[in-house]
From TrEMBL:
SUPFAM superfamilies associated with the record: GroES-like, NAD(P)-binding Rossmann-fold domains
Protein source organism: Podila minutissima
Single GO term (MF): oxidoreductase activity
Keywords: Membrane, Transmembrane, Transmembrane helix
Keyword Electron transport: no
Residues of the Enoyl reductase (ER) domain: 17-336
Name of the molecule in the record: Enoyl reductase (ER) domain-containing protein
Length: 344
């Protein structure tokens, strides 16, 4: 089978390769299933691996945490059947504890847990879940990691509910967009930030009440004008950095900041002012297998659809997706189709 592997860089600055190679088709052991992969999608984690900015990189391992495929072989008793279209739990080692993983925990791709950027993929049966029927293959491939991360951030950690005011920063990325869809489906009033006015307009079309440009020094005041002076209940943040200073001013007493990433700066400035307002910062990364099933149920019940920004044909197109991600121009997920004969 063809697969995209991490090839060690010999250049400075580091930018590890994404090489398409031929690997043996995986064998199936008891309690496992073999998938013929229909589509895969990218996460910023894949780019960080290439830049050498992610821990535990194993050279020669397969990239990718997100994919959808059909079961073509099963061993042992199973809730699944041959031909089922399934998505893969994007990590291993976390079953149901809402506070954190019960065991050693690995995200698929580039390290200890083999990735899914390949024509075939073998997984434990309990890590396979039926893909929501209303999603195309491209949308289903775009869902797992971003959907799980967003679901835990929005509901487990953020406790978002109907009528609340929610701010989602850095709209345009996969997690931020699916978090927007989840909050809108839950009946919350959603506001967004971006440095790109076009992305704010697109977010409004997806259900956001409005948005502000975070490069404007007065973006917090601009946001409060949009809310009519009402405070924000929850911030879903993937940027980190100095934004917390502004969050402290615009959040209600007892407001919640959920941090699922720090793409701008790997720290936040949590001040005594935030303490006096009882503002909580809650770290959130990925989620459990139980939350993954809850996320899929929510997606099916509310007919939520991930936003797909661009799609290419074949694993050989991986470099095009990486270049698009490096440029930061995407609005939604980047997908590779592996099925030439099926409509995504």
């Amino acid at each position: 089978m063809k697969a995209v592997i991490v090839e060690k860089s010999t250049t400075t600055p580091v930018y590890h390769g994404a090489k398409v190679v031929d690997l043996p088709k995986p064998t199936v052991e008891d309690n496992q299933a073999l998938l013929e992969v229909n589509a895969v999608s990218f996460n910023h984690r894949d780019l960080w691996i290439r830049k050498g900015q992610y821990p535990g990189i194993i050279f020669g391992s397969v990239y990718g945490a997100d994919g959808v495929g059909r079961i073509i072989n099963i061993k042992g008793s199973s809730k699944h059947r041959l031909g089922d279209r399934v998505v893969v739990m994007p990590s291993v080692g976390w079953v149901k504890d809402p506070r954190g993983p019960e065991d050693a925990y690995y995200i698929l791709g580039g390290g200890q847990a083999q990735g899914i950027f390949s024509e075939y993929y073998v997984a434990q049966q309990e890590d396979l879940f039926k893909a929501p029927e209303h999603l195309t293959d491209a949308e289903a491939a775009a869902l797992p990691l971003a959907g799980l991360t967003a679901y835990r951030a929005v509901f487990t950690k953020g406790q978002v509910s109907k009528g609340q005011n929610v701010l989602i920063t850095g709209i345009g990325g996969g997690v931020a967009l699916i978090a927007l869809s989840f909050c809108v489906a839950a009946g919350a009033n959603v506001y967004v930030t971006s440095s790109d006015e076009a992305k704010i307009i697109k977010a409004v079309r997806l259900g956001a009440k409005g948005g502000v440009n975070y490069k404007d020094e007065k973006w917090g005041a601009n946001l409060q004008r949009l809310t009519g002076g009402d405070p924000i209940d929850v911030v879903i943040d993937g940027a980190g950095g100095d934004g917390v200073k502004t969050f402290t001013h615009i959040l209600r007493l007892g407001g919640i900041i959920v941090s699922y990433g720090m793409t701008v700066k790997p720290k936040v400035d949590y001040s005594m002012a935030a303490v006096l307002k009882n503002i909580e910062i809650r770290g959130s990364t990925m989620g459990s297998r139980q939350e993954f099933q809850q996320m899929l149920n929510f997606v099916s019940a509310h007919r939520v659809k991930p936003v797909v920004s661009e799609m290419w044909q074949g694993l050989e197109s991986a470099e095009h997706a990486f270049e698009t991600m490096k440029n930061g121009a995407q609005f939604g997920k980047l997908v590779l189709s592996l099925k030439t004969s099926s409509k995504l």
